[in-house]
Amino acid sequence: MGVAVGSVLLSLAIYAALWGAPLALGLVAGMYVHELGHVLALRSLGLPASAPMFIPLVGAAVRMRQPPRDPSHVVRVALAGPAAGFAFAGACLLGYALTGQPVLLTLTLLHVAFNLFDLLPFGPLDGGRAWRALRATS
């Protein structure tokens, strides 16, 4: 079993033990979609990326094998994760509207909060990376 798969399974087990399987699946799925946004943006630029690695109780990350050189590409890659994460939150909200399942509303709110936090313009967050790249172009 690869490290990436093992990190997903470990995260699922920890989150399920803490909050139950439905919420654990939704948390991990949303983080995966967020990271997949970064992977797809990198690959669209012809840059390789690792599979998402999950860090239980922290989040997930994708390793860039070669960072984008152009600041506009850095911004594109940084913002692709939150964009995908907000789309996932929207899908959860739609699911809640159709089914009334409270876990879907909880997942909507959590993923909106996570992605808004990730857009803050500091540190290693996606917003920080985008902010630094935008400042480099001015």
3D architecture notes:
With 138 residues, this protein is mostly helical. It has one domain. The protein has helices at residues 3-19, 21-44, 71-99, 102-118, 126-136, and strands spanning 53-55, 59-61. It has a two-stranded antiparallel sheet with strand order 1-2. The N and C termini lie far apart (46 Å).
Task: Name its key features.
two-stranded antiparallel sheet; 2 strands; 138 residues; mainly alpha
Number of self-contained structural domains = 1
Low-confidence stretches: none
Instruction: Tell me the total number of β-strands.
Output: 2
Q: How many strands, which pairing sense, and closed or not: the largest β-sheet?
A: 2 strands, antiparallel
Element string (H = helix, E = strand): HHEEHHH
N- to C-terminal distance: 46 Å
Strand order in space, largest sheet: 1-2
Derived structural class: mainly alpha
Return Rg in Å.
15 Å
Helicity level, as a percent range? over 70%
* Percentage of β-strand residues: under 5%
Give the overall shape. Answer: globular
Q: What's the rounded overall pLDDT mean? A: 95
**What's the total helix number?**
5
